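User: Please predict structures.

Assistant: First:
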Amino acid sequence: MDERTATPIGEGMQPPRARKPITVIEARPGWRALDFREAFAYRELLYVLAARDLKVRYKQTALGAAWALLQPLTMMIVLSIVFGRLAGVPSDGAPYPVFAIAGLLPWTFFANVAPTAGNSLVVSAHILTKVYFPRLLIPLSTAGAPLVDFAISALLLVAVLAWSRIGFHWSQLAAPFFVLGAMITALGVGVLLSALTVAYRDFRHIVPFLIQFWMFASPVAYPVALVPAEWRWLYFLNPMAGMIDGFRHALIGTPPDLWGVALSSASALVIFCIGVAYFARVERRFADIA
């Protein structure tokens, strides 16, 4: 039998290393509040995403930003002929072109933001799996390009007001607040749709029909006065009803339905809170199913 010499510990033989603990990072289940402080810290990324959308919007187009004027101008002419002349729809005492363009601008802004925000996560799926940042910035950034379009379209609105000899009214200073309400509504709907579209791609087909129906349920081509008084409270649960009606009356210089505007404003805030809350709940699954 061979003799073997035992080697003391420390002389050519090391003790086994202790295993390092493994840390597993998991999202908290259930509902949770959105970290707005974190989202604010990434605000520069929000500007970058919005600028990217603005560049892509008119890239390789012959007319460029002129489309922001041609689209509402064309729709104003069509609505003025069909509803103003042929159908004889009342226009709250204002010339129908003014009535039409004052309803088209906030509606067009909403109709551009909500569907784009709804599809934003699916379109940006390649980003979700590569780097971490607050995912809410993606749908929020889609409001940048339509907001620039709205500012350009406002030049057409000023021209129509001047042509109709509607001068300055102090009430016109309230118009930006109704634009803000339309933005809150559009982003609330868009954020909710973006979270739903990631999980259920059927919403990509439902949203165009929803926006088309929503337009006829909003006072774009007709005044709120045509809605029966007993059903008007239900009508103003549509937040765009109060935003469009308030924006229009602010420009014309006539008092809006204040109770209806307040109801629509509350509805807009509720929709936005629901959209953000649901987005925060399912955000942790976006990278897996996008």
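Second:
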Amino acid sequence: MIKILFFDIDGTLLELGKKEMHQELVDALNLVKEKGIKIFLATGRPPFVIPKFHEIEFDGILAFNGSYCYTNNELIYKNPMDKKDIKMFVDNAKKLNKAVTLAGINKMGCNFDDEILEEYFMIANQHVHVIDEFNEFMKEEIYQMMVATTQDRDELILKNTTTLKVARWWDKACDIIPCNGGKDVAIQKVLDFYNFNKDEAMAFGDGGNDISMLKYVGTGVAMGNAKDSVKAIADYITDSVHEDGIVSALKHFEVI
């Protein structure tokens, strides 16, 4: 019996660049909640840029690809990044002439302008903000970094760091998170919090940063618009986000 559902946002709940879910999906999620099933967002977004959806309230959020997890009134888990490795990463990026955006609980800041990084942010209807106090901000609790590099540069961008890894859902840019983090790690923290097991959890995603959580839960569902690598590990492939694939899957598994 399914007791909890985890949803990626961009490309899963929302069409890329959109701000609101389809009404049919909102109605389906409310039916899920009426049955007593928990619903959680699982996203690479920081807490302060996660949308507040009309007519539906989620029970909790896995932000920063799982490095900061909370319910509506309680912190479940946090996993800030190693400060020495943050500094090394920023130095590596500068050598490649790549800007880095740092993300903390309440704000984000970038060291210089980067058109591709701005394009990455625009997918979630956000903008890159260059800040003068970047070096000071780097000393605060940072949970994620964003940089506009392709996969072939991963080794260079991570050079001489030991606690960082790439979480990628877009070809031209990526998120950087702790090696001991990820949506799968966060899901286990949430399951422990509610005393649920993996077989009672279902997750939905479309990007490379969703692979770990789809593999981890009892039932991992890939959207029809998901990357081939995501579809390859999923237990079930549903319709695309444009066709309300989440609703189709919930009906298929008789959750609603």
